[in-house]
Write a structure and sequence with these properties.
Strand 36 (about 300-305) and strand 37 form a beta hairpin. This protein has a single domain (about 5-360), classed as Pectate Lyase C-like (3 Solenoid), CATH 2.160.20. The strands form five sheets. The chain has a 15-stranded parallel sheet that branches. Strands 1-4-6-9-13-16-20-23-27-31-34 form an eleven-stranded parallel sheet, with no helix packed on it. It has strands at about 5-10, 15, 25, 35, 40-50, 65-70, 75-85, 85, 95, 100-105, 110, 115-120, 120-125, 130-135, 140-145, 145-150, 155-165, 170, 175, 180-185, 190-200, 200-205, 210, 220-225, 225-230, 230-235, 240, 245-250, 250-255, 255-260, 265, 270, 275, 280, 290-295, 300-305, 310-315, 360-365, 375-385. About 0% of the residues lie in helices and about 45% in strands. It is mostly beta strands.
């Protein structure tokens, strides 16, 4: 370890804290916190702690402000909060080797540079398995405010049961401002998102939620994803797709904002999706393959609806209820609620649990108090609504 700067790790190591609020490793704004850079293959396991206040904006190697993971490092991160780190690029975590991250938060990290850079919260350069993570309020001058994925052909980055919200990407030196939630310029591999909420991310150019550009064949698969309330100053408030393949299944893209194509800009494919505004959208049409285009989703605000990450609840009467396909539908939603609750899966990351309470009823006699008759007739009325838990 380097006592005057970052914590230099060159051999396999396991670090286990007493909890994210009890064990805090603070860089003090002096240097990167963890620099995991071995001479050969190692493993690095980090759990139950917080990594914060790393800063490499003025260092010779100016990326990976919180945690830098070299190509030879296979890392496992569990119940870790990575917050308030700074770098010229890839401020929170830079993973050049395989990374498994679970039950963790990457928040309020900032990549600030005089030219376009990538990855405000998390940079993925190799295989990724992420489950129940929250990527919140990170920023970048360039692309990928929350996450930037750039992996080789044959490599897969998978994110499930997670929230990506409040991240931003700004223009610098007339470049960038792409992919507030996720950026993927140069990605040749496969990105799989299942039961993920992408909400409230902003960009000064294109792709408020997702920016997809891969001239050499990268693939993005979205299954039961909710993309809502994202903003792009130019094109594609929800998704901006320029090249590569973007496939949607049971995915909700609505209530996003942009000067052009508020929800999706570009051609995508898929079935049983809900797109609120079809302007700029190609590849899917209303009423074909179970797709709903040009409809109001009727969802609630981003909130704690159960589980470990925030979601947009489906409201009573939402057209997304029972409108998904059971083929390829995950066994549970983002919160862990079993799917389907009705005959078919719901569209989006949230599965509505039907209200199981008895309906309100009114019973009246006709005629009232029929004392002189052996028989009496009654009228019955009842009503019930589907409500979120």
């Amino acid at each position: 370890m380097n006592a005057s700067g970052d914590l230099d790790i060159s051999d396999s190591l396991v670090i286990t804290g007493n909890g994210i609020d009890q064990t805090i490793i603070d860089g003090g704004g002096l240097d990167r916190v963890f620099d995991v850079f071995p001479s050969g293959p190692i493993t690095f396991n980090l759990s139950n702690l917080t990594v914060q206040n790393g800063d490499v904006r003025t260092a010779d190697i100016s990326s990976g402000g919180g945690i830098y993971l070299f190509t030879d490092v296979t890392a496992t991160v569990t119940n870790v909060r990575v917050r308030n780190n700074f770098a010229q690029a890839r401020a929170g975590i830079e993973a050049q080797g395989p990374l498994t991250i679970t039950d963790s938060e990457i928040s309020n990290n900032q990549s600030i540079a005089p030219s376009k850079v990538d990855g405000g919260g998390l940079f993925v350069g190799n295989s990724l398995t992420a489950n129940r993570i929250s990527v919140l309020n990170n920023s970048v001058t360039g692309e990928g405010g929350g996450i930037h994925v750039n992996v080789s052909a044959g490599v897969t980055a998978t994110i499930t049961n997670s929230e990506i919200s409040g991240n931003s990407a700004t223009i610098v030196a007339t470049e960038g401002g792409f992919g507030g939630g996720i950026g993927s310029t140069g990605n040749d591999g496969t990105i799989n998102l299942t039961n993920v909420t992408i909400s409230g991310n902003t960009v000064q150019s294109n792709g408020g939620g997702i920016y997809a550009i891969s001239p050499t064949g990268g693939v993005i698969n979205l299954t039961n994803v909710t993309i809502a309330n994202n903003t792009a100053n130019s094109n594609g408030g929800g998704i901006f797709r320029s090249s590569g393949t973007v496939s949607l299944r049971n995915t909700l893209v609505a209530l996003n904002n942009a000067a052009v194509a508020p929800d999706i800009n570009g051609t995508v494919s898929g079935n049983n999706n809900l797109v609120g505004n079809g302007a700029g959208l190609g590849g899917i049409s209303n009423g074909v393959n179970g797709n709903l285009v040009g409809v109001t989703p009727q969802i609630g605000p981003l909130a704690n609806n159960g589980g470990t990450t925030l979601t947009h609840a489906l409201l009573s009467g939402s057209p997304a209820i029972n409108a998904g396909s059971n083929v390829g539908c995950p066994a549970a939603d983002q919160r862990g609620t079993a799917r389907p609750q009705g005959p078919f899966c719901d569209i989006g990351a949230f599965e509505l649990i039907p209200d199981s309470t008895p309906p309100d009823t009114t019973i009246t006699a006709n005629p009232p108090n029929p004392s002189n008759s052996a028989n009496a007739s009654f009228s019955f009325t009842g009503s019930d609504n589907l409500t979120s838990p």
